[in-house]
Amino acid sequence: MTASVPESFSMDELNAALESAPNEDELKSQIEKREYSQEYIEKVADDALNMASDLVKDPLVHKVMAMMIVNRMIQWHTLIGDEQLKHDDQNSAICWYRDAGKFQSMMDSLMMIAVGNNDFTCVATDDD
Question: Do 94 and 106 have their domain in common?
Answer without folding.
Answer: yes
